[in-house]
Each structure stands twice: as C-alpha cells, then as structure tokens.
Amino acid sequence: MSTAAFAPSPLEKRIRLLLPWLLLGVLAFLPTAGLTPNIIRLLFITFVWVTTSLGWNLLGGLAGQVSFGFAVFYGLGAYSAALLIDRGVNPYLSFLAAGLIPALASVFIGLPTFRLRGPYFAIATIGVSEATRVIMNNLAITGGASGFRIMEHRPFHQVDHYYTALGMAALAVAASFLIMHSKFGMGLRAIKQDEDAAADLGVNPYSYKLAIHAVAAAFTGIAGGVFARYAAFIYPQGVFAFQTSVYILLMPVIGGIGTVWGAVLGAVVFGIVEEQLVANFPQIHLLLYGALLILIILLEPDGLAGMLGKLFRRLRRSKRKNGNADSGSREADEVLRGAGRG
Amino acid sequence: MPEQHIYGFIGPNGAGKTTLFSMIAGALQPSAGHIRSRGKDVTGQRPFSLVKSGIARTHQVVRPFRAMTVLENVQVASHFGRKNITRTAAARDYAMQVLARVGLDHRADALAANISLGDQKRLELARALATDPELLLCDEICGGLSPTETRTMLDLLRRIRQQGTTIMYVEHDVKAIMAVCDRVMVLNYGQKLAEGNPHEIQNDQSVIEAYLGKAGSQKKGRVA
Asked: Could you say which of A5, A189, A342 has the minimum Cβ distance to residue B68?
C-alpha cells in the first residue's frame, strides 16, 4: 500500500498527473477518427460500466462493504431517466433524477442493512435486490415483463451518447479521486479496517456508510439512466437482474479493489471480455465469471492493477540490480511486496 | 475524580477494570447508574461522540489499521477527534507532531502491521492522543512490554499528564501503577475495595487480603 519507499521522481509524478488528461483527450478525439458505430457502441458501454464500477468500488473497495444489490440502483436510475425522458423532460435533467432517486433509495436500504456486518450485510443486499426485481416486474409503470420503450422526441446521434457517457465516466474518476484523498475517504478506509477502532477515534461508522452508499448509488443510477436513453428499451428482468448486480461487483474485483484505476481497468477488461463470452458461450458465460472470480480472489486479491503493480516493481528492481543499486531499497521492496500479499 | 492526575485502577482478574473502562468509553452500556464527565451526563453515549467530548481510550489488545501506514493511522484521529481537521495536509502535519511526542516519527511511513508490538502500543497511544482528549483511558498499555519499554511508556504517561490530560490507567503490573499514579483505586468483584495514594494502598489490609488471601495478611505481606 505504502509507496513511500519508492518515492517517485518529479518527472514520474508529472507523467502520472498528465496521463489521465492524455487519455481523456484521445477518447474525446476518437469519434472523429472514423470509428465504426459498433466500436463506438462498445466504448459507450465501457464508459457506463466504468461508472458503475467506480461507484461500487467506493462502497465495496474503499469502505469495505460488499454489496450484491447494485442492480437496484442501476434499475431505478434507468427507469427514472426513461420515464422522465418519455414525458419530454430534458435528458440531462433526467440523469440528475436518475442519480437522486437511487441515492434516496440507498438510504432506505442502508438504514436496516448497515446494522449488519460483513457477509451478513452482503446477504441482506441480495434479498433487497431480488425483492426489488420482483416488485418492479409487477408494476404497471415499468411496463412489467414486456418492458418499457422510451420515446425521445429528438433525432438520435450516437456521438452525443458517446460524449455524455465519456463525460460521466470522467466525472466519476475525478469524484473518486477527490473522495479517496479527503477526510471522508480516510474515515471510510478506517471503517474498512476496523469499524470499532474507527469509532474510538471519532468516526461515526453508521452515518459514513450511509453517506458513501448514497454516493455510490448516485453513480450507478446515472450510469443506468445514460444506458437506458441509449438502449431506448429497458425491462425489469434486465436492469434489475441479479446478474446486473454481479456484473457491477465483478468489475472492480477483476481490476483491483479499492483503487480508482483498478476499477476502471476492470470495467474496460470486462466490457471486452463480456462481449466475447456472451457471443461465444451464451450458455455458460455466467459459470465462467464465477470461475474467474474465484481465481482472482485466490491468486491475486489485488486484481489486475495489483498484478501490474507487482510486474512494474519487479522490472524496476531488475533495472536497479543492473545499475548496481543499494540493497537497502531492495529489501524495502521485498517487505512491501510481502505486505501487499498479506 | 481529580483532573490532571494519573488515576490507577488495579484488582485481581475479573475485578471489572476493563468493564469499567468500556462503559466510560461507550463500548458497553451500564446496566445501572450514570457516568458524568465534568458535570455532564455522558451515560450511554456512543464512542465517536465521547471522543468529541474529550474522552479517548487505548485498547488492551492493540487494534491498529493494519493496512494503513503509522502516519495514516494517526491522521484518522487528527481528522475525527476534537481537532476536527478537514484538510489532509494539516491533519498529516498534526499527526506527525503527535508521533514525535510518543517517539514514533521515525516509523511514520511503515505499515502498521509491520511494526513491533512495542511500537504498536505506542501507535495506540498516539492515535488516542491525536483526538486531543481531556480524559485518556489507558487499558494495559504496558502489557507485553519489556522493562525498558515499560519505563519509557510510563515516562510518556507522566509527560502527557504534565501537558494537561487526565489519565485513567488500568494495569496488571502493580509496580507500574504504583510508580506512575497519583491516586489508585482497587477493585474486586466489581466493588471499590480501597482508594488512596499508592503508599496508602500498599498498606491497606483489605487490599492485601484480596491479593494474597487471609494467610498473606497474617504474615504482614505487602503488595508490590
């Protein structure tokens, strides 16, 4: 966790600060480079997943509260935006509602469930999620099992959707960094480690968990809303499905739980892999996800980001070895790698 | 209870020392009676609000945030204690000062899981101190420490008292209590057995009986 022993050079720091902007610039220019609509669609979906992944990561990765119930927020966001846009409300205002309504719902869900800890909380969220799906499937307003078609009274431009999703994902990255490096984030990290010890230092675990739950729900809901507008057709068994909850949880776990870039990476990889898996193994793709999840948790709990970090450190170490560097820092390296594993 | 004192609590196993602490610190609810701090009733307040009214504790079994650095551990307390510092840079500075006070600043960037037990005990103290308490509850802060480490820890407690904090101190090691406390209370089976300065306690008949039994008192045995 600690990077103190590596004290990156000023140049490296500057590159690290520049890279996200560079990435954003490239992504902003891509649609003008004559990509096929299919690639643009794939990128759009990836941005949606990046946002949900970052949202889940705030609650699950930063505050350590593993939830299997994020489909509730995704679905509520999707339906809030869908119903409003269908009534002629400005889509961007609708996205605002798609964030607010799930955030409100998260408080009602959190009030009882955050009385539970660890696996008990996780199990409770499954119950809430499934109950919501059944209720939504039987409400007239959602269109029930036959779904809901959104009539938006303006022409469809795929690039509009692309930029909306890109902006949303970029905001989610920025907000995640701000939260993680704030007092709020420190309190959440403490809660993840030891709730009681955190309370002894003045952190109110219950209200902090409720607060980050609401932020995470807003991220997820907006993503659901942006997706719904693009898809123009949603149905409760899709957006509220347990499978959606699992997808949202899987991405940050694949990428690297608790880090911003890990969550982003997980969503990107998942976006690509899912497309292939569903196309090639429609019957068993859920089984493959399960296997993947088990493998990652057993072999590399820090996910792809943790794996890349280790690789990077090893490369640097061998470079240092060739350069006849001091053994002291190499020892520190060893200690840190051990700590990362523990 | 007098202010700016080190107030020691001793008693045989199961006498209720840690229970008393847990009730004051808000981890347990008393089944009867009230707890008052400076005339204010704080009975049944949750730990995080007690911290805000100036009561902090250390744990008998250390509970560091293991995956965080020593500095980050203390930073949490600087943010959420009575100082209530919002800016992270300021909280880090303050945490660093507190680490220097307990002599742990050289380990600031180490992971809390990787430091020795002695250092973890000091970290426990540093975190409680960083909440800026008026009343500090120390539960067995010297438990498991070597005699040298114990001596530095006791010096540290004296210095904290000099800087204006009242300390309630529970310890099994009667010698440590006698060396550092201004007043001592002896508990047995949840009851107050005796109270006074260390010298009075050492010569109290009922205390000697509780520790050594009747036979011990006939031999005029001394505690400690």
From this structure: A189
CA B113, B116, B122, B126 dihedral sign is negative
Query: Tens digit of pLDDT for each residue in A230-280?
Result: 999 999 999 999 989 999 999 999 898 889 999 999 999 988 888 778 788
State the ipTM, two decimals: 0.85
Q: Which of B53, B80, B129, B134 to mutate to test the interface with A (most CBs of A within 10 A)?
A: B80
> In whole angstroms, what is the distance from residue A197 CA to residue B66 CA?
11
Count of residues in chain B: 224
Contact of B113 with chain A, judged by CB distance below 8 Å, is answered with: yes
Task: With beta carbons less than 8 A apart as the criterion, state whether A266 and A296 touch.
Answer: no
Contact call for B88 and A196, based on CB within 8 A? no
Instruction: Give the nearest partner residue to A201 out of B51, B69, B85, using CB atoms.
Output: B51
- Tell me the fold of A35-284: ABC transporter involved in vitamin B12 uptake, BtuC (1.10.3470)
Q: Where are the domains of chain A?
A: 35-284
Model pTM above 0.95: no
Which residue of B lies nearest to A185 if distances are taken between CA atoms? B76
Contact: A201, B114; criterion CB under 8 Å: no
CA distance A311 to chain B (A): 21
**Which residue in chain A is spatially nearest to B75 when comparing CA positions?**
A186
Between chain A and chain B, the number of residue pairs with CB atoms below 8 A apart is 96
**Domains delineated in chain B:** 1-54+133-224 (3.40.50.300), 63-131 (no CATH)
